[in-house]
Amino acid sequence: MKTRTGSAIFAFFLLLALQSNAQGFLKAKGKIIVNSKGEKVILRGMGIGGWMLQEGYMFRLSHLGQQYRIKEKIKELVGEEKTKQFYNEWLQNHTTKTDIDSMAAWGFNSIRLPMHYNLYTLPVEAEPVAGKNTWLEKGFQMTDDLLKWCAANKIYLILDLHATPGGQGNDLPISDRDPSKPLLWQSEANREKMIALWKKLAARYAKEEWIGGYDIINEPNYGFEDPKDTRGTSETKNVPLQQLMTDITKAIREVDKKHIIIIEGNGFGNNYNGITPTWDDNLVMSFHKYGNFNNTGSISRFLELRDKFNIPLWLGESGENSNTWFTEAISLAEKNDIGWAWWQSKKMGINNPLEIKQPEGYQKFLDYTSGKGPKIPEEEAWKILQELLSNLRIQNNIYHRDVTDAMFRQVQGSGTKPFKKLVIDKPTTTIAAVDFDMGSQRVAYYDRDSSRYQYTPGVNTVGNKGNTYRNDGVDIQKDKDGPYVFSIEDGEWLHYTIEVKEAGRYRIAYTVGANEEGGSILLSNDNGMPDTAAVPVTGADKNFRKVESAGVIQLKKGVNFLKLTFGKGGFVLRDLSFTKQ
Fold it and tell me: Both 301 and 241 in a single domain?
């Protein structure tokens, strides 16, 4: 039986242990972020896009764009009450403790929460008393819960006001902006509400060490001086933005002296003309990076600002590209002591850790909402929406291991790793061509077009042209029989790690399709015995046919490394088979 003294001693040492593991408040110190021990902290984060704020493209609804327009279409199909029920369940299903536990296990040490202001307070036009703020418990409770999940995993939570009162610019979906109403820059009432919201949040979380910072405005994009500058990229003064961020900082500091405040420039976070010099000794300068080259020149203007004003940088949003681009961008950031937050944790599509599966019948929903199809009966529409709610849950998401591998292991340059366990253990074993190893470009594979540079003039590349199965640069399509490699070009190659149960000589066969002659495949291994195969015309690139190689290849018992090189492309490849001789 424990005595009270023994229990007290146990509690004391438990408290000491917890304190020794705690990193404490983050702080800007010169050009880096440090913890309470003064140790440098590189934030490796994930943005939870689509939870509090839906953007249409995340769910193949780009034709609608804003969340309020998506709600209107759902209401047309199932009515107001079921629409409310749908959104309540959406907020319950999209992000849970299991999501945060998983992100911590994958290697993330921070979470960026894109907040919609209307979960915390009423819109200005809906306030019962003009100039007063009605506070809504829903958003605060969701944030409290998320903070508990983060703290349990010892990862930081960064609050990001993604949708401001009125909307912060001309990109309507990112702020759920209704263009018929005054935006943030046209309404003093909206700005006062935004300042009050940040003061309310700061007062609530002032003592919370696992709050990493306050990202006070996401991607402003507005022409203050020139209305034709719709993206805000050419503004030279940015007076209203600088004033608003200064006012928000002042309000936060009235109730919270400790937390980092993160600022963003105009032009989607990157135009800092007129924003500097800085006005607080605990600021971090955020920038966003998409679809450009991953060289020092691409971030040089931010490095110059960091050096000039002695302020840490944070790559507050990036992603939406191939794994090759992810590895390069993160390597660039970390080499320069810059933390990062990726966009985003889950959506429909492959370039995120978690993929939301498209419900059965969802195309009918897409067709109706885009005006291309008839109205769906309420019962059928509700069934589609219920399946979408189920598919939101992490237990029903598709986990893309290749994405997180590219964001962590590959940044360290640690070679290849099997995408799937491949074992040759039968007289004839077939391996899918798409199951090549995980690893960087020119390490696990080589593809002539491995990344997307949509914001780089003159560069027309897309990465995986099929946009399915995995997020590496290799082009993959899918049909009723499964995924296969297509758009194969001269000199491209794939690397495989294969376990062989019985050593010996094996004949190789390939399932290929080609509508032109001349294609060739070279298979080599670490035993130095290459084998070749010519690819015949099969009538069409999707008219698959099995073709045997010219000779045999020697495989040892245990792990074998194989490299499949396409001497001449112009064909598609579904699989390769190994038959023991």
Answer: yes
390 and 449: one domain?
A: no
Residues 383 and 339 in one domain: yes
Strand-strand pairing, 422-424 and 110-116:
unpaired
Query: At residue 100, what are phi and psi to the nearest 5 degrees?
Result: -70, -40
Please list the residues that pair with 306 across neighbouring strands.
none
The answer to whether the beta carbons of residues 158 and 113 sit under 8 Å apart is: yes
The C-alpha atoms of residue 337 and residue 342 are separated, in whole angstroms, by 16
CATH number of the domain within which 523 lies: 2.60.120.260
Q: How far does CA 164 lie from the centroid of its chain?
A: 22
Domain boundary among 353, 372, 404: 404
CB 316 within 8 A of CB 264: yes
Are 400 and 419 members of one domain?
no
Check residue 374 and report its DSSP letter.
P
Cα separation, 269 vs 285, whole angstroms:
9
What pLDDT, in 10s, does the model give residues 412-440? 988 999 999 999 999 999 999 999 999 99
**Is 355 found in the same domain as 283?**
yes
Residue 27 lies in a domain: no
Q: How far apart are CA 110 and CA 118, in angstroms?
A: 24
Give dist(CA 476, CA 351) in Å, integer: 14
**Domain with 575 in it:** 415-580
Handedness of CA 387, 390, 391, 396 (dihedral sign): negative
Contact indicator for 508, 559 with CB cutoff of 8 Å = no
DSSP string computed for 259-322: S-EEEEBHHHHTB-TTTPSP--TTEEEEEEE-SS--SGGGGHHHHHHHHHHT--EEEEEEESS-
18 has a pLDDT exceeding 50: no
Within-domain flag for 35 = no
pLDDT tens digits along 163-181:
999 999 999 999 999 999 9
Question: How many structural domains compose the chain?
Answer: 2
Question: Going by C-beta distance under 8 Å and a sequence separation of 6 or more, which residues neighbour residue 374?
Answer: 368
Pairing of strands 354-355, 346-347: parallel
CB 551 within 8 A of CB 538: no
Residue 540 binned pLDDT confidence (cut-offs 50, 70, 90): confident
Greatest Cα pair distance in the chain? 85
Q: H-helix or E-strand containing 252?
A: helix 239-253
The residues pairing with 507 across neighbouring beta strands, listed in sequence order, are 552, 579
Sign of CA dihedral 83, 84, 85, 87: positive
Q: Is 442 within the bounds of a domain?
A: yes
Whether the per-residue pLDDT at 20 is higher than 50: the answer is no
Asked if 375 and 457 sit in the same domain, the reply is: no
pLDDT in tens, 438-488: 999 999 999 999 999 988 888 888 999 999 999 999 999 999 999 999 999
Q: Is residue 19 a part of any domain in this protein? A: no
